[in-house]
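Hi R.,

Here's the input for the TUI complex you asked about:
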Amino acid sequence: MKTRITELLGIEYPIIQGGMAWVAEHNLAAAVSNAGGLGLIAAASAPPEVVREEIRKTKELTDKPFGVNVMLLNPNAEEVAHIVVEEGVKVVTTGAGNPGKFMELWKENGVKVIPVVASVAMAKMMQRGGADAVVAEGMESGGHIGSATTMTLVPQIVDAVSIPVIAAGGIADGRGFAAATMLGAEGVQMGTAFVVAKESIVHENYKQRIIKAKDIDSEITGMSTGHPIRVIRNKMTKEYQRKEKEGASFEELELLTLGSLRKAVMDGDVVNGSVMAGQIAGMIKEEQTTKEIIENVMKQAKELLNR
Ligand code: TUI
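And here is the predicted structure with TUI in place:
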């Protein structure tokens, strides 16, 4: 399937992987790229030199294009922005902010820039700033989210910009892909589906928590702090809600969610840790290879779109 996204990125299928903190490392990124999508390394809050190492390890595992996701709330984002250029990475996606101040650096160096946005205003601003495409991320997504749903956000962004739009949030099979296409998207970004991939290094408990999740197991923490984060309900989210009601400080609340993502992903503490996942977790029922995930999505989508 050819779209402006496959052309822009030189990939076989218009599927990109979410830039998930702690999860999107070299094994997963290389697997997604080798399967014909666009794999991504999440710089998240990692020390910049660790990001450089991750880029180098990915290059050892794949000759295909891959990208780096730069999380803009990271105080080290500027250093990461330069490392991406130094290491010759071809694609950057950005999250949780406005990448405007890095746009010139990246464009001058031939890096394709695809900001993740959660509003029409941000999408238009990114187009004006020279973005090559945008990811329109609905609030069905895991992690840090905006307030519009994928169903409402994608067509409004498609109408507002002329650059290609990649849909994200709630997509994990061919039906989601086909629906995104109907909304005008030229590709999809998937996160939660890849968290449970065989090549994903997340703790087995984390994968099982997603596989066991029901449709209504998703919660948003951080509405009151201005950093809404979608996670799967557990002891941590209950504790969070209790502290929020008691008027706990911003720092105390942030520590509960963000500080404990590592605990869930690496140590497998899915009770006290922060199990970030999208609302589509309820539909994900088994661990598959990235190749199986991508090929199943494309096969089902093609059947639906050719009906
Ligand atoms: O970024 C994400 N998802 C994430 S980032 C993350 S780690 C984190 N660390 C500290 C605080 C918060 C999160 C976990 N999950 N998705 C992309 C995304 N970007 N969703 C929403 C946005 C966004 C929000 C506001 C993009 C731009 C924006 O504009 C704000 C501005 O500066 O105008």
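One thing worth noting: Residues 214-276 form one domain.

Cheers,
M.
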